[in-house]
Amino acid sequence: MFDRQSITRRSFIGATSAAAVAPYFIASKALGDAETPPASDRIVMGGIGIGNMGRGDQNAFLSRKDVQYVAVSDVRKSVREQAKGKVDGHYKNRDCQAYNDFRELIGRSDIDAVHIATPDHWHAIMVIEACRNGKDVYCQKPESRTLREGPLMIETARRYARVVSGGSQRVLQDYRKLVDKCWSGELGPIQSINVNVGPLSKLCNLPAEGAPDDIDWDLWLGPAPWAPYNPNRCSGSYSTKGNSWRSYLDYSGGGMTDWGAHHFGGATFAIDVRDLQPEEVVFHNDNGKTHLTFKYPGGKTLTHNCPGKENLEVEGTPGETREAKPVPEYKGTGGIYGDFIHCVKTREKPFRDIDYAINTVTVAHLGIVAYAVERSLKWDAKAQRFVGDEEANRYLDRARREPWQL
């Protein structure tokens, strides 16, 4: 297995051996000073997928003094060169390496951790390969594209003893007041919560256009079915209503998984079921208006698009008491990014540990299947299969193009 401490020690020894030649350089860069921690205390990082959200993630990690940012990867030349330029400008050198193929980045033995913000259909493959290569991982939500991917990601993280954090900052930061109400006992025992989010993703029939030289189109598609280039097919727009990869079935679960990762994450955290998965999804069709009820072990429920209910509307039990519980917090300093870096150093579980993140997106995936087959489903969380419904089980995963298999 990759040993981060041995790498930093070797780097440190190699650097200090050059002190006779450049003592001031070594003192400021390797040994640290008032502004910069020594090399042994810095996490060496690279970024994969640096457009839109990836750019924000890069800024957050690059600004940390306990991170040494050394590499970027993106299938768009202009994006990766811009990202490299930002790193080089920050450190006032030209040391950052830019890669078209993410495998070159995660194959580097000097890199401790990576952040990933590619389209969703790439997440599982990249997280699993990064873990196998000894990297800790911060992966943007939604962490998985299919139900089958989630358990494989968790298993790989545990097998290789990797720290893997999901990337939804809104779960704690945006929904904290709601979480405090629920966990303080103010609302009594919690019965249910509602989430309004959508739409589902759809097929993409955009016309073919000539791919610009700036993009490696085949690598952008990766495990997704081959399709002709169209700029709106691969647009990183945050819209889930069309003309962005977030809208299309081959790359995303649409708003159900995209914004759903935030909303379902906040909802399951608030009602304290984030370490569980639903055991049943009840499909409702009221005069053509469909909605869902997710039933959890222990009796709590989560509804999706329930008529007459607001987003994150909670039903408690007035007049009854519930013992207060302390709300889990980020570790370290600097929000969800600092939480991840702290855990890379200490080997603790981050706030959005991969199992919590997968439990969240599993709710969205289960809902997508229920809407697809238009009936209620029972879910065996241990077996990771629908009970007695082989049609539904065909939705557990999607075919992948060679050589991108799990």
UniProtKB/TrEMBL annotation:
The UniProt record lists the Gfo/Idh/MocA-like oxidoreductase bacterial type C-terminal domain at 205-285, 337-405
The UniProt entry, under Pfam families, shows: GFO_IDH_MocA, GFO_IDH_MocA_C2
Q: What is its EC number?
A: 1.-.-.-
Q: Which InterPro entries match?
A: Gfo/Idh/MocA-like_OxRdtase_N, Gfo/Idh/MocA_oxidrdct_glycsds, Gfo/Idh/MocA_OxRdtase_bact_C, NAD(P)-bd_dom_sf, TAT_signal
Keywords, A to Z? Oxidoreductase
All residue ranges annotated as the Gfo/Idh/MocA-like oxidoreductase N-terminal domain in the record: 48-165
Q: Which residues cross the membrane?
A: none
SUPFAM superfamilies assigned? Glyceraldehyde-3-phosphate dehydrogenase-like, C-terminal domain (SSF55347), NAD(P)-binding Rossmann-fold domains (SSF51735)
Any keyword Cell cycle?
Answer: no
Which named protein is this? 4,5-dihydroxyphthalate dehydrogenase
Native source species: Pirellulimonas nuda
